[in-house]
Design goal:
This protein is α/β, with parallel strands linked by helices. It has helices spanning 13-25, 62-73, 79-98, 131-144, 223-230, 263-266, 292-306, 320-326, 328-336, 393-411, 436-452, 459-482, 487-508; strands at 2-9, 31-34, 51-52, 124-125, 149-152, 155-161, 181-186, 191-202, 213-214, 235-236, 241-248, 255-256, 270-272, 311-314, 346-355, 358-360, 372-374, 379-380, 456-457, 517-518. The protein folds into three domains: 2-106 and 126-239 and 356-414, FAD/NAD(P)-binding domain; 244-352, Succinate dehydrogenase/fumarate reductase flavoprotein, catalytic domain (Flavocytochrome C3, Chain A, domain 1, Alpha-Beta Complex), CATH 3.90.700; 436-518, Methane Monooxygenase Hydroxylase, Chain G, domain 1 (Up-down Bundle), CATH 1.20.58.100. Strand 1 (2-9), helix 1 (13-25) and strand 2 form a beta-alpha-beta unit. The chain is globular and about 65 Å long. The chain starts with a strand and ends in a 15-residue tail after the last strand. The mean pLDDT is 94.
Length: 533
């Protein structure tokens, strides 16, 4: 057992920002950052496009960024939260620049600002086409200089510890459910340990791995959302899964897809169908720079009409020097599979990318469970509503990790140590005899979610998905009760829970709005607001 003041689960931009600020404020208190892989393997690392921020008030304004975000969110954004993120964002971006992050600049020293779908102005700061990796690097360097931050890698969090583990019956109606820390599987010792903490921050990232094709890394299995739901915390708007319109299509490839950032279309890339026609003007007057939900559905429609598995992104008209300067990673990747962007169009198709819902929080990042905070993609702060505006996610992560820090810093002096918590009980369990029981269930889950709960949905598909998920959940729970836990089993259990929450939310939403499009309810309803589970 270990006791600590601040426990951060996840080492992306949200978790590292929180840890760094907290360690600076409290040099005599211990901050633990825990990851199930290595510190740099996060969703942040794979964010290509950039970070949306208003830092050129001569040509842009907070009001424009707020309006763009509200339009993309399709009526479900929390206006107060949108104002907070947009107006506090510039200060947070200045901080990460002070910590060493480098964004591309013009010859005159001003920042290069890109334009992406849904934005009325050019306001995207970027570092080539690896912005997330650069921000992650700067944060890891800054964190390494803090003596009171300890990284624990290769530890898988099993469950959040609450009064439930003290023998109390807990439900969603129970007032004052408290978080005391977590049970973790130490992958290096293969032992289950408990880490108790006065403050626990979930920064566990997304859940793209519940789908067959995703831009997310293999670690994005929805662990924070699933653990919070099991602990009777509130989860919100899980039906809004953003499919990035342009992931690189590679025939026969499985798992993580290579992302072709939206900034390519922002710089003039044109989507074309099988016949070479620029088709986006048929779907939206903003053409290739329409918000992601519209572009993804348009591509899906063109693919289905033609019976093909991808469309084309035409960059042949780009000056090669400009393309390789802004998108060197994309250029090298395309070249590695025989695509010369000056001669060939890039095959692209939508892939699961970002979860707009998650752990319901207030404007200070507090979840419905006391002393448990959430920030980054695992949280539903109210910023994104029904659809995330491009490049708002990194900004949100920085603003809300700062707000989690401010709130928890004010409270830490009044928080007491956890009561006596029992050790993990693994009596009666044994090693699973066949791993295929886990791997096959994972394949079934990803197939069900991809086929029935994708870009376009209907009631019959959702009903089928729920029946199959019910069976997968029952089989997996039986395996969990009888087996020694493993990362594979824990991830499967979490992903089935997240899949259930996505389907449940989609079933409740009797309308089409933002990222949720149900052909049985093509219209928009003012009666359906945020769906909390």
């Amino acid at each position: 057992m270990r006791e600590v003041d601040f426990l951060v689960i996840g080492s992306g931009i949200a978790g590292l920002t929180y840890a760094l600020k907290t360690a600076n404020r409290f040099p005599d208190r211990k901050v633990i950052v825990m990851t199930k892989a290595t510190a740099d393997e996060t969703n942040t690392k794979y964010a290509q496009g950039g970070i949306a921020v208003v830092n050129d008030l001569e040509n842009d304004s907070y009001e424009k960024h707020i309006e763009d975000t509200l339009i993309a969110g399709d009526g479900l954004c929390n206006t107060r939260v949108v104002e907070i993120v947009v107006k506090e964002g510039p200060e947070r971006v200045n901080e990460i620049i002070e910590w060493g992050a480098q964004f591309d600049k013009e010859d005159d020293g001003d920042y290069k600002r890109g334009k992406e779908g849904g934005h009325s102005e050019s306001r995207i700061l970027h570092h080539k086409d690896v912005t997330g990796r650069e921000m992650e690097r700067a944060l890891l360097d800054a964190v390494a200089a803090q003596k009171n931050i300890e990284f624990i890698n290769h530890c898988f969090v099993i469950d959040i510890i609450t009064q439930h583990h003290l023998g109390y019956l807990i439900s969603k109606a129970t007032p004052d459910v408290e978080c005391y820390g977590v049970y973790v599987l130490n992958l290096e010792t293969n032992r289950i340990e408990k880490i108790l903490s006065k403050v626990t921050v979930l920064a566990t990232g997304g859940n793209g791995q519940i789908y067959r094709t995703t831009t997310n890394p293999s670690i994005a299995t929805g662990d924070g959302v699933a653990m919070t739901y099991r602990a009777k915390g509130r989860i919100e708007n899980m039906e809004f899964i953003q499919f990035h319109p342009t992931a690189l299509y590679e025939a026969g490839a499985k798992g993580q897809a290579f992302l072709i950032t939206e900034a390519v279309r922002g710089d003039g890339g044109i989507l074309r169908n099988k016949n070479g026609e620029a088709f986006m003007e048929k779907y939206d007057p903003r053409k290739d720079l329409a918000p992601r939900d519209i572009v993804a559905r348009a591509i899906d429609s063109e693919m289905k009409k033609a019976g093909v598995e991808h469309v084309w992104l035409d960059c042949r008209h780009f000056p090669l020097e400009e393309f390789t300067e802004h998108f060197p990673n994309i250029y090298e990747k395309c070249l590695s599979i025989g695509i010369d962007i000056t001669k060939h169009m890039i095959p692209v198709a939508p892939a699961a990318h970002y979860s707009c819902g998650g752990i319901k929080t207030d404007e200070w990042g507090r979840s419905s469970i006391r002393n448990l905070y959430a920030c980054g993609e695992c949280a539903s702060t109210g910023l994104h509503g029904a659809n995330r505006l491009a490049s708002n996610s990194l900004l949100e992560a920085m603003v809300f990790s700062h707000r989690c820090y401010l709130d928890s810093a004010e409270k830490i002096g009044q928080l007491k140590s956890a009561p006596e918590i029992p050790d993990w009980n693994a009596r009666g369990t044994s090693e699973p005899k066949e791993m295929i029981l886990i791997t096959q269930s994972l394949k079934e889950l990803q197939q069900v979610m991809s086929d029935y709960v994708g870009i376009v949905r209907n009631d019959i598909r959702l009903q089928r998905a729920m029946r199959r998920l019910d069976l997968l959940w029952e089989e997996t729970e039986q395996l969990y009760e009888s087996s020694t836990v493993s990362p594979q089993l824990l991830e499967l259990r979490n992903m089935i829970t997240v899949g259930y929450l996505v389907v449940k939310g989609a079933g409740f939403r009797k309308e089409s709005r933002g990222l949720h499009y149900n052909t049985d309810y093509p219209g928009y309803s003012d009666l359906v607001q945020n769906i909390v589970l």
